Amino acid sequence: MAWRVAQDLRDGMVVNLGIGLPTVVADHLPPGREILLHSENGVLGMGPKPAPGQEDHDLINAGKQPVTLKTGGCFFHHADSFAMMRGGHLDVCVLGAFQVAGNGDLANWHTGEPGAIPAVGGAMDLAIGARETWVMMSHCTKAGEPKIVERCSYPLTGLGCVRRIYTDLAVMALDAAGARVMAMAAGVDAGSLQARTGIPLRFD
Amino acid sequence: MIDKRVATLAEALADVRDGATVMVGGFGLAGQPMASLEALLDQGARELTIVCNNAGNGEDGLAALIAAGRVRKIVCSFPRQADSWHFDREYRAGRIALELVPQGNLAERIRAAGAGIGGFFTPTGYGTALAEGKETRFLDGRWQVFETPLHADLALILAERGDRWGNLTYRMTARNFGPIMAAAARCTVAAVHEIVELGGLDPEAVVTPGLFVQRVVQVPRRTT
């Protein structure tokens, strides 16, 4: 999944990778492309994780893991960092999700269950600010329920923001006409994919 | 003569009152002013409102202040973490209030306070539970939510170098909320790893101009 997302990032793009699954995309960036990774805690030009023993606790990513800085990279404070996000200066953000709706609504910050502690971080800012929001998630829940749904039942992060969905089964584009399948994983066919998806899919 | 250097954190925090709103710099542990938080714990102020991106990690710093029952409310974007057990327990027991704020709104509300802005409209959070009850307007082709500035009595920040005028530089991602919190608080106490002579900081590289800082205290560098 991470490999596939990485192949779709073009030379020169400025990209924010959300915490969790999307962070892995950084390990699969195609060589020969200059892709600038932005991290909400104040880095542009983030590099891969450091060699063991080279970690610096002042140089971390949004998931608070040690990272490196590429030559040409720079640091800035939080208001500047979120100006980059909210001001429309990022090409793509890749976020994890609990659910995505056919109209592009995203839910990824709160299960809404009693006793659950919500944590939103920068997800709402990325959802409205990045030029495109891509979601990376398992196609279904552990119980086998579709995560791509007609309407999100979890609390929303952003309205109509998701443009692409990458799952373990397929890559889908969302537009005004609904969801179009761009690619399917080996061994997946249209019928089985549709059966695991809560909205109608186009295979044109 | 302007000299903002204070010998100890205990002295720098002696006047913190019960009920104070305290901004705490740091994103995770990077830039978290651990020594200042320990001094605030020793100082004894209670019923604090804390403005910080996270709600404490492990046992030290902000987590220790929460564990000691000294925090009444926390304004933050990302409280839930693998090691936020003190906050988790206090929150579930109803002993600490949480104002959850999208991180960009947190940063911009702090920036607005420091810049004398009375509020702003932003698309962030529109249509979500975090914007419920807030004023909205259709501006620039999209729905936006009105957000208000976040002021504080005190900001505790960690910087790399400082001088006696309060000019500061930072180290890598430890910069995070430091510069905007310094501007937003009535009193900013900067813990720094090194105090240099006036002129010892490249004027082109000063990140926080000294007028935003009231007290500068040198603290040892921590290795973790």
Automatic annotation (TrEMBL), chain A:
InterPro entries the record matches: 3-oxoacid_CoA-transf_B, CoA_trans_fam_I, CoA_transf_AS, NagB/RpiA_transferase-like
Superkingdom of this protein's organism: Bacteria
Molecular-function annotations in GO: CoA-transferase activity
The UniProt record lists the keyword Transferase: yes
Coiled coil, from the record: none
UniProt keywords, alphabetically: Transferase
Pfam assignment, any one: CoA_trans
PROSITE patterns in UniProt: COA_TRANSF_2
Similarity comment text for this entry: Belongs to the 3-oxoacid CoA-transferase subunit B family.
NCBIfam families, per database record: pcaJ_scoB_fam
Protein name: 3-oxoacid CoA-transferase subunit B
Automatic annotation (TrEMBL), chain B:
A single GO molecular function term of this UniProt record: CoA-transferase activity
UniProt keyword terms in alphabetical order: Transferase
Pfam families for the chain: CoA_trans
SUPFAM superfamilies: NagB/RpiA/CoA transferase-like (SSF100950)
Alphabetized NCBIfam families for the sequence: pcaI_scoA_fam
PANTHER family xref list: ACETATE COA-TRANSFERASE SUBUNIT ALPHA, KETOACID-COENZYME A TRANSFERASE
Family: Belongs to the 3-oxoacid CoA-transferase subunit A family.
The protein's name: 3-oxoacid CoA-transferase subunit A
The organism of origin for this protein: Rubrivivax albus
